[in-house]
């Protein structure tokens, strides 16, 4: 692009030379692929170098500049939480106390499984732990889901949040989305492509078996290893079936196609309420 393409009023603009401007200019220029003619491919010209130097990690469905910033902030927050020095903020000190309590492995080891046992008993008896003591007649699926979402913030079959309307941010809507699998929100492929992710599924199965065995010992219930293994296999097989009906992450990039607004009174036509 020659000099004639630059408007006359832009030729007289002064360029800021303060450190902030220089830093911003460096970040922008380092993201550009200036070997490309912007008239041929402006996207490659503006972002090509950043894309080539930042491939999407396997654990992400997308990656952008904000992703690197988010990772950096997470590292800074961890250093803050690990620090023993008071921050002067009552709210932040409370968060640090909770974080450090979660990271206190010695205390957790002494407590053994008492806290998780108390939490699971609030939700109901866990078949993998209690075996034949679990009663299907006494099991209320709806009540269990309500308690789980309210107390554990776990989105099993569906994710429900109150968020701004994407098409009208002045109002809020109840957003209902697909839930989360045991290996994570974006882990659908782990269950679908068993050959590729056999190691991850094997580790997940071992994790379930090991934890269930330890908790059953803390409860004082004797269960055969084969019984726990069968229960773990049932869990994973159920998740595989659930993964098959979930929308893959690569098909969730178009927010317009995911936007379906209904009234609360319309719900009975979709589900039994």
Note down, in words, how this protein is organized.
The chain is mainly alpha-helical. The protein has two domains: 89 residues, no CATH class; 154 residues, Neutral endopeptidase , domain2 (Neutral endopeptidase, domain 2). The chain is built from 13 helices and two strands. The protein has a two-stranded antiparallel ribbon with strand order 1-2. It is globular, with a radius of gyration of 26 Å. 4% of the residues are buried.
Which structural traits does this protein have?
mainly alpha; single chain; globular; Neutral endopeptidase, domain 2; two-stranded antiparallel ribbon; 273 residues; 53% helix
Summarize the structure.
The chain has 273 residues and is mainly α.
H and E order = HHHHHHHHHEEHHHH
CATH architecture assignment of the largest domain: Orthogonal Bundle
Percent in helix = 40-55%
Q: What global shape is seen?
A: globular
What is the mean predicted local confidence, pLDDT? 85
List the quaternary state of the chains: single chain
GO molecular function: metalloendopeptidase activity
Pfam families: Peptidase_M13_N
Protein name: Peptidase_M13_N domain-containing protein
Domain Peptidase M13 N-terminal: 38-268
List the helices and strands and how they pair.
Blueprint: H1 8-11, H2 19-31, H3 42-53, H4 65-82, H5 90-103, H6 105-111, H7 114-123, H8 127-130, H9 141-152, E1 158-165, E2 168-178, H10 188-192, H11 198-219, H12 225-244, H13 255-258
Antiparallel strand pairs: 1-2
Helix pairs in contact: 2-3, 11-12
């Amino acid at each position: 692009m020659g000099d004639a393409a630059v408007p006359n009023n832009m030729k007289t603009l002064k360029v800021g030379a303060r450190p902030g401007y220089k830093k911003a200019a460096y970040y922008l220029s380092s993201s550009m692929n200036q070997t490309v003619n912007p008239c041929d491919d402006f996207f490659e010209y503006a972002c090509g170098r950043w894309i080539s130097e930042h491939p999407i990690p396997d654990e992400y469905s997308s990656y952008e500049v904000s992703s690197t910033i988010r990772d950096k902030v997470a590292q800074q927050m961890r250093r803050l939480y690990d620090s023993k020095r008071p921050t002067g903020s009552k709210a932040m000190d409370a968060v640090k106390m909770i974080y450090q309590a979660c990271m206190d492995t010695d205390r957790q080891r002494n407590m053994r499984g008492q806290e998780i046992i108390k939490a699971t008993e609030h939700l109901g008896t866990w078949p993998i732990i209690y075996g034949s003591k679990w009663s299907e007649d006494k099991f209320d699926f709806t009540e269990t889901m309500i308690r789980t979402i309210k107390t554990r913030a776990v989105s099993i079959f569906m994710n429900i949040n109150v968020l701004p309307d994407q098409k009208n941010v002045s109002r809020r809507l109840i957003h209902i989305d697909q839930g989360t699998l045991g290996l994570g929100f974006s882990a659908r492929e782990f269950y679908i492509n068993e050959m590729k992710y056999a190691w991850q599924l094997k580790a997940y199965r071992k994790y379930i078996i090991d934890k269930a065995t330890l908790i059953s010992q803390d409860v004082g219930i004797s269960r055969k290893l084969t019984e726990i293994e069968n229960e773990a296999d049932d869990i994973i097989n159920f998740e595989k079936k659930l993964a098959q009906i979930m929308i893959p992450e690569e098909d969730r990039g178009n927010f317009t196609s995911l936007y379906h607004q209904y009234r609360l009174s319309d719900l009975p036509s979709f589900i039994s309420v």
